[in-house]
Amino acid sequence: MTTTAPADDVTATMLESPAPRGRRKGTLVGLGVAVGTVVVGLAVPHAVTDTYRMSLLVDGAILSLMAIGIGFLARHLGIISLGHGAFFGAAAYGVGIATTNWGWTPTVAVGFGVLAGTAIALVMGLLVVRATGFGFLMLTLALSQALYALSVQTSARPLTGAHDGKLLSYDREMTFLGLSQADVMNPGLFWPFAWIALTVCATVLWLVGRSRFGTTLEGIRENEERMRFSGYDTFGPRLAAFVLSGAVASLGGALFAINAGYVSPDILGFGKAGDSLIAALVGGFGLLAGPAVGTFLFVYAQANFNFGGNLHLFTGLALIVVLVFMPGGITGAFQKLYHRIRKGRR
């Protein structure tokens, strides 16, 4: 696209022009879809009566929170993070410490866990958001691994359990939003909380992406230097986006701890963040739902194809197929097919 307007004027127009009526209508439609998605999802336990399959769906919803956080950064800033396992794990350990060591109620502990994970995201963001590309990826991985190393130290055993992990325990009279300790481990009863959390977080990220702030992020993604020359701060928006995505991952970690009743240092390691990144790549970054779709498929595949110790082989083959034949991921491939069908009908 060619234009004779100065770069500064073009950027200012893009960021400051009010949303058209069609954009507001699209937002209302999207919110309606979100409400419908919540309602449909709440009926899942009535359709899936098998406890094992229901537990896989709960795991998929919880891990999708970390995946959509990774996808948000990739979509709007073009950066890939391997540090979201730190936020997920920090929130999980925060819940474990608050309930077991301090005797807090599960509901308050979950709030504390989310705040703890978000605080870690803020500290990490201050250190890494100026980096881009491979440097950003490696910095997030390094800081995440540093947190893992701290969690397994012998001196940290009273808080984290070191390599043994931490078993959550609290009084039977205490509940999580009305659910007892036995109830939160029941996938059918816990599913509404996981599903509503996923849908609400996805909707918030979608609204942020459509806002003026989201447009600013995309401007930074396309040409950060031009944005700075146009008078826009690029550090603040990058940091805010990073912390927001970290907060979403932290919510996933807090829900994971309450549901599992146990926290292992493995959730702070490379494996958990790497699995979420692979799932997001398979699902696709082009659509907000892509990472969630990829995560549900990944959890299902992990449960059904982990025979003979060949799970990583199948995962690698699936990733190669997607990257070679569906570079936009599964949702990207369906999106292209949908557009082709629409063009064919015209």
Q: Outline, from the CA principal axes? A: globular
The neighbouring-strand order within the major sheet is 1-2
SSE series: HHHHHHHHEHHHHEHHHH
Determine the mean pLDDT: 86
CATH topology: ABC transporter involved in vitamin B12 uptake, BtuC
Distance between the termini: 25 Å
Task: Give the total of beta strands.
Answer: 2
Number of domains: 1
Proportion of residues in extended strands: under 5%
Given as residue ranges, the uncertain stretches (5+ residues, pLDDT < 50) are 1-18
Helix content: over 70%
Using the coordinates above, name the CATH class: Mainly Alpha
Q: What's the CATH architecture?
A: Orthogonal Bundle
Helix/strand/pairing class, anyone?
mainly alpha
Biggest beta sheet attributes: 2 strands, antiparallel
Separate helix tally: 16
Global Rg? 21 Å
Topology of this protein?
Elements: H1 7-16, H2 21-42, H3 44-47, H4 51-77, H5 84-101, H6 106-128, H7 133-151, H8 157-160, E1 166-167, H9 181-184, H10 187-210, H11 212-229, H12 235-260, E2 262-263, H13 270-283, H14 290-304, H15 311-325, H16 329-345
Antiparallel strand pairs: 1-2
Helix pairs in contact: 1-11, 2-10, 4-10, 4-12, 4-13, 4-14, 5-6, 5-7, 5-12, 6-12, 10-11, 10-12, 13-14, 13-16
